[in-house]
Write a structure and sequence with these properties.
The chain is of the alpha/beta class and about 325 residues long. The chain is built from 11 helices and 18 strands. Strand 17 and strand 18 form a beta hairpin. The longest helix is centred in the middle third of the chain and has 14 residues. The N terminus is likely disordered.
Length: about 325
């Protein structure tokens, strides 16, 4: 995959930790640049070592500022309850109420598009989760832009803008590829003409909207931020006259129903779905519905999270022999 430029690679890591307790942040800033470059997540758990997750290794920070892979090292930096709590309030800009909706869904989208997953005790109201209290762990998913990562798919879409499904396991690069496609087609890059494109960004990851501004370059897309897909798709078709709708992580029946309606209206769809590989995808009941009723023609299979963004195969659903 291709990042903005070599000079800005580690900016992603440094910008992801801006809200952390000073001691933890200062230690993370000092880690080797090659680890920053390859880091995918930073996991913080109460009274546990601060863990930096790369594609194939975990690193821990020693109190000296060095890193180690030895979890049992006595000099590993840990984050205590107070530091985690201070980091959480800083992330919420000291107004937890303002982030109530995001917190109830288990995450907060920070500036620069980083998504912070939350664990703690659920607050239940009327049988539904309305929030999370007593935060016990936070997972910082480091958001990065990979310009050009969809080039293989754009070659196919340039011939015909057909419904396209990006398929891969978690952390395989599905969202990055969707973002790159959105930018390309909305600006008319590597395609015959600009396409009116709407992003239904239920998890606030594709555009990474924070403070009313997209944190990523998504070209000339309209963004329906934090809308459930089944609501956002219906509203987009009704009000925004899209030629293409892009959304992430298709799952429930309500999503499928709206995708079917969308396809029947003549609006192109580009979406993603979780599956380990091609065999796993075709074992799922949802695969037949996505192909036969939603009209997905291009099936793009990605590699593992160790090679994020790597396209293993692109097949035509109409050519696939079951």
């Amino acid at each position: 995959m291709y990042e903005k430029s070599a000079g800005t690679e580690n900016h992603y890591f440094d910008s992801a930790i801006y809200f952390l307790d000073e001691k933890i942040k200062n230690s993370l800033i000092q880690i080797p640049e090659n680890i920053k470059k390859n880091a995918q997540e930073i996991r913080l758990r109460t009274d546990k070592p601060v863990c930096i997750v790369c594609s194939d290794k975990n690193f821990f920070i020693k109190n000296s500022g060095l890193t180690t892979q030895n979890y049992h090292d006595n000099n590993i930096l840990k984050i205590d309850k107070n530091a985690l709590e201070k980091s959480f309030y800083s992330l919420c800009e000291y107004s937890v109420y303002s982030f109530e909706n995001q917190i109830s869904n288990g995450f907060i989208t920070a500036k620069d598009g980083h998504r912070i997953g939350l664990c703690g005790t659920a607050v239940i109201k009327n049988g539904e989760i309305s929030g999370i209290r007593e935060i016990t762990s936070m997972n910082i998913r480091i958001a990065k832009e990979f310009f050009g990562c969809s080039s293989g798919i754009m070659t196919v879409l340039n011939k015909a803008l057909e419904n396209t499904l990006i398929i891969g396991p978690p952390a395989s690069g599905k969202t990055s590829i969707l973002r790159d496609i959105a930018r390309n087609i909305s600006l008319g890059i590597n395609i015959q003409k600009p396409i009116k494109t709407v992003i239904i960004d239920e998890r606030c990851e594709i555009a990474g909207v924070s403070s009313n501004t997209s944190q990523f370059d998504i070209g000339l897309c309209d963004v329906m931020n934090a809308f459930p897909k089944y609501v956002g798709i219906e509203m987009a078709v009704r009000c925004l006259s899209p030629e293409c709708i892009i959304c992430d992580e298709i799952g429930g029946e309500s999503d499928i129903d709206e995708l079917i309606k969308c396809s029947n209206c003549g609006v192109n769809l580009i979406a993603s779905v979780h599956a380990k590989n091609k065999d796993d995808f075709f074992r799922k009941n949802i695969s037949k519905t996505l192909i036969s009723k939603c009209g997905f023609e291009n099936l793009v299979f990605l590699g593992s999270n160790k090679n994020a963004g790597e396209i293993n195969q692109i097949i035509k659903a109409s050519d696939f022999k079951k």
